[in-house]
Design a protein that fits this description.
Length: 581
């Protein structure tokens, strides 16, 4: 049998097997649920010759927010072809009021049902939000899984490559076999009711709340970037499976430094003991415990966390518009702060105007007489990412910015399902030159002359910076774009010895983290800082814009950068007086 005949035979066998399985499949049983306004909806109310798409959704899951409007678009696309769409919310943590808000804000155009007790979710063995099920006229499940392949966990493609649900609908309408009947749903776990009596000595009040307060609440609170709050026991219920998943995968809290190299004061990792406590608590049914044992809630400063700024600089004169969905390329806004004299910065803070869609801000100082197009002409002034702290320098220390310098703001926006606007800004506090005893130097190892070949899975680019005099290293901030894979800082000392200062084996461009050393590291004169960046320009990189093109330096996210920023001060300053507060 030749290869073509063999392939045809295999196809016939698979199609036949699927047809037999479909013929023997049990139709989905009828169910009745109330919609978000109390009116009942039954599967049996829908004419039997129509297809039905059942979409499991949640009010706070980021992917459910992005895909809610897309499902409405699909409903409109197939409304005259005998396809009915219905949404089901099975989350124990989502109230009717929250579901109503979700429907209203995202302009959901199909019925949204409340599945109290997750009865329908159990009937279909649904796991995630969003997750869709396509039922044929006999109510057999013909497709289940994701809607399309654009959005992943923490990642976004610039465009859809496969419209899984739409393809399945077209195939069923054409009386054809569904080519891909199942895909892996991606999103948050459905918050099911737990049928277990809580037990055990580990309770939310006596241990778990402390862990969440220390590691999570800064972002998981009202008005902040995280998708749900974690400030009370009631906030957590329904999210426990998602929490277990993200800590098992080390996705949360976000921290990417290899623990075998360096010690960092802003290390956000959960310890193994803390992870064990959380897992045991969930396994035991999440006992709440005695409210008298609750720790004091963490206190967060409202407004500026730095001293009141002398100058506030916005990214532009008018707000920038962010679309409801898709991928927004990095935006660069040039601003002239009108500095006609040298400035000495003692505090700096970047603040998002709209935390719901601002993922990071980097404000660069551009040298006088340049446009910042070359990496050597830009210095990082201050940045923002969730969990970032402002730069507040100790007495006598300042960052020198020459007269005539301008600024470029690099903005990374992440759509959240509804159109948004943003007008972010930074605040700066200055001092007189006479008050400055030590300058903070913002340096970088930069390479702008690289080429990443097509389909290169692990291409390395290096850059070096020689330390001109004895200095103390305070922190490091690697910066790459979509193809960034890994980043490492090494020190090659004058005596020939070497040391890994920071190793980031799994770089994530969504999180522009600075790594603040627990103690400043002495770098003698002549030390060479060597940075090695790894890039994945292959098809294995799920957000690669085009693996068939060579990639060079450029501002846009489909281009690349290789910047190893670091802050130093001259070593004559006592180490204890040299670090950021």
């Amino acid at each position: 049998m030749n290869r073509s005949s063999f392939a045809s035979a295999v196809t016939i066998i698979l199609v036949t097997a699927f047809s037999i399985a479909s013929a023997n499949a049990q139709p989905v049983a009828d169910f009745t649920l109330p919609n978000h306004r109390g009116a009942e909806w039954s599967l049996s109310d829908v004419a039997g010759d129509k297809l039905v798409v059942i979409a499991f959704l949640g009010t706070e899951c980021p992917l459910a927010k992005l895909y809610g409007p897309r499902l409405t678009e699909l409903q409109q696309e197939y409304s005259d072809k005998g396809v009915v769409f219905v949404g089901v919310n099975s989350n124990t943590q989502d109230s009717l009021a929250e579901i109503t808000g979700y429907v209203t804000k995202l302009k959901i155009g199909f019925p949204m049902l409340k599945d109290a007790g997750n009865r329908v979710a159990d009937l279909l063995a649904a796991e995630r939000t969003p997750e869709v099920f396509l039922l044929d006229g006999q109510r057999n499940i013909r497709y289940r899984g994701r809607i399309d392949d654009q959005y992943l966990v923490g990642l976004s493609r610039d465009q859809v490559k496969r419209r899984d649900l739409a393809i399945a609908i077209d195939e069923v309408l054409a009386n054809a076999t569904v080519s891909v009947p199942k895909t892996e749903p991606i999103g948050c776990h459905i918050g099911r009711v737990r049928n277990m009596e809580p037990h055990g000595e580990i309770t939310y009040s006596n241990q778990i709340a402390r862990i969440f307060n220390n590691h999570c609440v800064e972002c998981h609170r009202a008005g902040e970037v995280a998708p749900f709050e974690m400030t009370s026991y009631e906030d957590i219920v329904g999210w426990e499976d998602t929490i277990l998943e993200v800590i098992a995968d080390n996705r949360m809290p976000p921290w990417f430094a290899n623990p075998h190299h360096g010690s960092f004061k802003n290390d956000a990792r959960l310890s193994d003991d803390e992870k064990t406590l959380i897992r045991t608590w969930v396994k035991n049914g999440m006992p709440q415990g005695d409210a008298a044992e609750l720790p004091d809630p963490p206190q967060f400063v409202k407004g500026w966390r730095m001293p009141e700024p002398d100058q506030v600089i916005k990214i532009r004169d008018t707000a920038f518009n962010i679309p409801a969905e898709g991928v927004v390329d990095y935006q660069y806004f040039a601003v002239d702060p009108q500095w006609d004299e040298d400035k000495y910065v003692v505090a700096a803070e970047a603040r998002p105007d709209n935390v719901a869609v601002v993922h990071h801000i980097i404000a660069y100082v551009i040298a006088p007489g340049t446009d910042g197009s070359e990496g050597q002409d830009r210095r990082m002034l201050v940045g923002y990412a969730p969990g970032a702290i402002p730069h507040v320098l100790d007495d006598g220390m300042a960052m020198h910015v020459p007269a005539g310098s301008t600024l470029i703001f690099e903005m990374h926006y992440t759509p959240n399902g509804t159109e948004q606007t943003d007008l972010s800004y930074i605040g700066l506090k200055f001092t007189d030159k006479k008050n400055v005893t030590t300058l903070l130097h913002v340096d970088a190892a930069i390479n702008t002359k690289f080429e990443i070949p097509p389909q290169a899975e692990h291409h390395l680019v290096t850059a070096t910076h020689r330390i001109p005099r004895d200095q103390l290293l305070l922190d490091m901030t690697p910066h790459m774009h979509l193809r960034g894979k890994s980043f490492r800082y090494e020190a090659v000392f004058p005596d020939g010895t070497e040391e890994v200062l920071l190793d980031v084996p799994n770089y994530d461009f969504n999180w522009q983290l600075s790594y603040l050393l627990s103690e400043p590291r002495l770098l003698p004169k002549g030390t060479v800082i060597k940075c090695t960046a790894g890039y994945d320009n292959s098809v294995r990189n799920l957000v690669n814009p085009n693996p068939n093109e060579a990639v060079h330096w450029g501002d846009q996210s489909w281009e690349e950068m290789m910047l190893g920023f670091f802050n130093v001060v001259d070593a004559k300053v006592d180490a204890k007086q040299s670090s950021f507060k």
